[in-house]
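Protein modeling request. Please complete all fields; requests missing the sequence field cannot be processed.
Requester role: graduate student
Desired output: 3D structure, token encoding
Chains: 1
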Amino acid sequence: MLGGIDIILLVILGLVTWSVASEGMWGAALTSLIVVISGLLAMNFFEPVAGILEGTGSSLWWRSHCDIFALLGLFAASVAVLRICTDRISPRFISSDRFIYGIGRWGAGLLAGYVTMAFLLTALHTGPFPRNFWGFTPERRNLLGAVAPDRQWLGFTQWVSEETLKWPGDGKVFDGPQTYRVATREGIGPRKNTTWPSFIIRYATRRQQLASGIVPGGGSTTSSSGVTIQKGTPAGGGGPQF
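Delivered output (242 residues):
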């Protein structure tokens, strides 16, 4: 069933794609890269920034909005700064074959539109909204019931933090919790996983708690079976995610 969130996402996808493609092939290519890089930067730093913002106010309204303010603010600021830099150091138009020009600008525009849509859908998870709203459900494929752009973006961010941009040694990854057996430091499950991403379910629980007047936090627990779980901190705080 088509919900309000599906319509909003399609509008965002169409508007951003058209706007970016109108810049030409080179401008669209630069903009698509800017959107991806800005999204990763925002995902990395939004929780510590949200923690700082929380310290500036004590009301539940303010604290419940800090995560989404930090996430969207970092994204917008990064896009603006990178756009200014590329406008100053790179030419906006490069001649090319007409067919390649058309494919390039619309392809890059679609990439920028899809990433922007996926990022904004992910940001909704961090907002002070009900658990389910406008047809948005954490467990649902929120674009026409066919694809889940938010999960795709979270998966990409997770992969980047575990592979491409992973720090040497036991560096942090974007989304935990880190789960392992205390005695052997070995992962659990059939594939011995030590990282179990939980962003979507953590923030769904957070929205439920906020509706009850509670601002959740993180922590660490050890079960009776000797498995330690280092929980994430969906309420903000801590250092960069990766």
